[in-house]
Write a structure and sequence with these properties.
The chain is α+β, with helices and mostly antiparallel strands. The protein is built from 7 helices and 5 strands. It has a single domain, classed as Tgt2/MlaC (Nuclear Transport Factor 2, Chain: A), CATH 3.10.450. Helix content is 53%, strand content 17%.
Length: 205
């Protein structure tokens, strides 16, 4: 239960908040599995387990996450109806800042949680709009469902949302962003995001 509470807490972005095993068929599942296998390999590498190597693991995991997610689609979904109000320059700025915040948040989540857990690949569902890969993380006396939603591109599919025990990362961002825009303004939201971005950059140096 504590594991679930920790993960769900990490999903809230501005509190201002995984590749390849035998017998798994299907391109979306293979993509998710390839990512997770790489991450777990880094997390369990005995040569970089000490605390002083945490930043080295963080950088390596961050690269894997960066190559696995569709940040353009995520940005579209988290900003939803407000997106048409932005010009090209504003939209490019939002996507860049959002990408930085998500990469930091998701990388920290992986660093602090996903280590030697067993990942079971349950089911794959594909339609014209999206691809879904359902998994379960097995921990001591605990099972956590993690669903990955991928784009429906023919050649390369990328993740655009992750649901942990049914809680969507994208929806949490959207709710948080919409709340700030509604009660304050988009400019206030962007300012908060930039402040968070600066904190991340400072902590990374």
């Amino acid at each position: 239960m504590k594991s679930k509470i920790f993960i769900l807490a990490m999903l809230f972005p501005i509190s201002l908040v995984f590749l390849c095993s035998h017998g798994i068929a299907g391109e979306p599942t293979e993509m998710v599995k390839c990512m997770l296998d790489q991450v777990i390999s880094i997390q369990t590498d005995p040569q970089i387990q000490a605390h002083e190597f945490r930043n080295k693991r963080r950088i390596a995991i961050k690269k894997i996450v960066a190559n696995s997610f569709d940040f353009d689609m995520m940005s579209e979904k988290v900003l939803e109806d407000f997106r048409p109000k932005l010009n090209d320059t504003q939209w490019a700025e939002f996507k860049a800042v959002f990408r930085d915040l998500f990469l930091d948040s998701y990388t920290r989540l992986v660093l602090d949680f996903l280590k030697q857990e067993e990942v079971r690949y349950i089911e794959e569902d594909i339609n014209q709009r999206r691809k879904l890969v359902q998994t379960v993380i097995i921990r001591l006396n605990d099972e956590i469902s993690v669903d990955y939603l991928l784009t429906s591109a023919e050649k390369v599919s990328l993740i655009y949302d992750v649901k942990i025990d049914g809680v969507s990362i994208v929806k949490n961002y959207r709710k948080s962003f919409s709340r700030v825009i509604k009660h304050k303004s988009y400019e206030t939201l962007l300012k908060k995001m930039h402040i968070q971005q600066q904190i991340i950059e400072k902590d990374s140096n």
